[in-house]
Amino acid sequence: MPVKNFDHTTESLQDLLQTVKKGKTQLPDFQRAWVWSDEQICSILASISLSYPVGVVMMLQTGNDNVRFQERLIEGVTLKDSIKPERLILDGQQRITSLFQSLLLNQPAKTKDARGKEIKRWYYIDIEKALNPSFDRESAVISLPENKIIHSFGKEVLADYSTVEKEYQNGLFPVAQIFNCSDWMCNYNEFWDYDREKIKLFNQFNQEVIKPFEQYHVPIISLRQETPREAVCQVFEKVNTGGVSLTVFELLTATFAVDKFQLREDWETRKNQLQQLPVLSGIASTDFLQAVTLLVTRDRPSISCTRKDILKLTLTEYKDWADKVTEGFKKAAKLLHTQKIFTAIDLPYQPQLTVLAAIFAVLEEDTDPVLAKLVRWYWCGVFGEIYSGAIESRMAKDLPQVLQWIQADDDSEPDTITDANFSPNRLLGLKTRRSAAYKGLSALLLRDKGCDFLTGYEIDTLMNFGDAIDIHHIFPRKWCEKNGIEARLFDSVINKAPLSSRTNKIIGSKAPSTYLSKLQEKANISEQRMDDILQSHAINPDNLRSDNFQAFFNLRQEALLDRIETAMGKTILRAESVEST
Q1: Dihedral of the CA atoms 436, 440, 441, 445 (nearest 10)?
Q2: Which parts of 258-314 fold into alpha helices (H)?
Q3: DSSP reduced 3-state for 313
Q4: Which uninterrupted H or E stretch holds 120?
Q5: CA of 144: how far to CAs of 102, 121, 161, 163, 465, in Å?
Q6: How crowded is residue 350: how many other Cβ atoms within 10 Å of its Cβ?
Q7: Residue 129 to residues 45, 236, 289, 414, 495: CA-CA distances in angstroms?
Q8: Angstrom distance (rounded) from CA 174 to CA 369
């Protein structure tokens, strides 16, 4: 029989808000500050006045030493002495905060207008409107500025409700008096000299509007103390649709804060260091935590970096590995730079970079033979497109297997190498940067000293000096369309090369034989030099000079496969090569 980790009950709204005021109900620190709009607050007050449901509130019981979070008071609550809460709000923060501030705080509630500007508002209910069936209840809920005076755009006073006498006179009941309305009612009756119609009106208002607030019960799901931390994270993500999505980093931040460790500040410091390296500019907190978790779980029966395992990290374990992982990412960035992967946009797979950082965090030496093995493993992952699925299990395999392969100095190749396979037909499917193999092939062309057609500079040199570089067609698109070449052929990576924008403007839609002559003339270079430049991109010069797309395509396909084969250190079967006929 499955174990039940939650209870379902109801609680009066007044009692619930009192527990908030006393600090017995608080927020976990991973709950971000979130302000409801003025319109939303008016709407929920109207709903409760009509006894309409406003949703379930989810709580987590405190007291479990294995699931500890730093807590904080709901905004507006002030206590003389700190108090440990009995429960934490997982879902319902916005509703409870808005209701507490408008009903119980006796101060203007913090909210925002339709433009998102932060404002403070008092809330009232128009007595006559609320009792008139021809009016929608929401229209009877009035929002007033902090000074309770309404001005026109020209600053002219349109209405003034700044004293209680003016409240009585205009029949506006302050919702802050909902749970203690007797004094306001007595003063209201006295203001109207105990007029029978006014007394009758307020008694009806009391029954139809105030009583529903007093009698309102909020449905509550309470997660028990024994609920595991990963379940709290998953539950929060499923139910907290109105707030900011919870990450393992947020949850771990709240956990470590109990021991006075500010994970967010620690990560910001590390991130600022790492993101100075362009290839690491996209690194996220989760990537860093995965690398740490891989290393921590090496000593456990099974290595893993799933969310569940990240949430099991202790502060001591994090501190033991954080510095080493930081250095590991820096070393990984250096290795990728040698392979001409310079920026986060160029990166084929972020998870493989994370594993590479974890490997470097363990390695004591990064000698040439070690780096050669890492480079081969890396390209097998890229061109085998190994990290396109089952990512976490692949990461858990690669760390121990690559380390074993390097440290044992034997022939036990990692599965990523043995499993890697590149089909020649795959070249036809590589059309944009969205593909990891496309990015990898672009990097290989740079690594193998591909040069710009016009300047003769190596492409990576131009990139380092800020020149605009992109992937362009070798046989221009318009020329191909005019000559009946299929799009599946001319749009593939086989017909593309990294070139400068200046070069591409000269190429335009001209035939290769035409633009090559113009480039040679513009650059004042010999035909032999131009041939050398073309060959740096694995292009046969004769095919371009004769505008022979078919011959160009077939030979360049073979040349690109040769380069991929060399990078992977594996033979690629050529039976699948595509003819351009």
Answers
A1: 150
A2: 263-274, 285-296, 307-310
A3: coil
A4: strand 118-126
A5: 12, 5, 9, 13, 58
A6: 17
A7: 14, 39, 56, 75, 73
A8: 77
- What would the mean pLDDT of 87-98 be, rounded to a whole number? 90
Q: 499 - beta bridge partners?
A: 470
The kind and range of the H/E element at 151 are strand 149-151
Residue with tokens 């969310």: 307
Looking at the DSSP assignment, which residues form a beta bridge with residue 37?
112
Distance CA 203, CA 229 (A): 50
Please say if the pLDDT value at position 411 is more than 60: yes
Asked if residues 41 and 144 have their Cβ atoms less than 8 Å apart, the reply is no
Could you give the angle at the alpha carbon of 565 between the alpha carbons of 564 and 568, nearest 5°? 85
Tokens of 263: 């994970």
Closest CA to 168 of 210, 198, 197: 198
What whole-number distance in Å separates Cα of residue 416 and Cα of residue 121? 60
Instruction: Quickly count: other Cβ atoms within 10 Å of residue 104's Cβ.
Output: 21
Q: Are 321 and 361 in contact (CB under 8 A)?
A: yes
Give the pLDDT band (50/70/90) at residue 236. Answer: low
> What is the residue whose two structure tokens read 């004042």?
524
Q: What Å distances lie between residue 565 and 338, 374, 533, 558, 569, CA to CA? A: 18, 16, 22, 10, 6
Token pair for 410: 């034997």
Q: What is the pTM of this model?
A: 0.72
| Residue range 46-61: mean pLDDT, rounded | 92
Across the range 286-308, mean pLDDT stands at 92
DSSP 178: T
Band (504; pLDDT cuts 50, 70, 90): confident
Q: Where are the beta strands (DSSP E) in 210-364?
A: 217-223
For residues 465-478, one letter each, b for 16 or more C-beta atoms within 10 angstroms of the residue's C-beta and e for the rest, the string is eebebebbbbbbee
Average pLDDT value for residue range 130-155: 91
* Radius of gyration, CA atoms only, the chain: 34
For 104, list phi and psi in degrees, rounded to 5: -125, -20
Give whole-number Cα distances, 104 to 11, 108, 124, in Å.
16, 10, 13
Closest C-alpha among 477, 471, 456 to residue 522: 456
Give 258's contacts (C-beta < 8 A, 6+ positions apart).
68, 69, 70
Which amino acid is residue 496, in one-letter code? K
Rounded CA separation 380/422 (Å): 9
Lookup: tokens for 545: 């000079």
Q: Which pLDDT tens digit goes with each residue over 249-281? A: 887 887 887 788 889 999 999 999 999 999 999
How many Å apart are CA 329 and CA 344, to the nearest integer?
13
Per the structure block, which two tokens stand in for 455?
A: 């300047």
Q: Which residues face 87 on adjacent strands? A: 25, 61
| Token duo for residue 15 | 């009692």
Look up residue 34 and give its two tokens: 């979130």
The residues with which 497 forms a beta bridge, in sequence order, are 472
Q: What is the Cα–Cα distance from 434 to 69, expressed in whole angstroms? A: 39
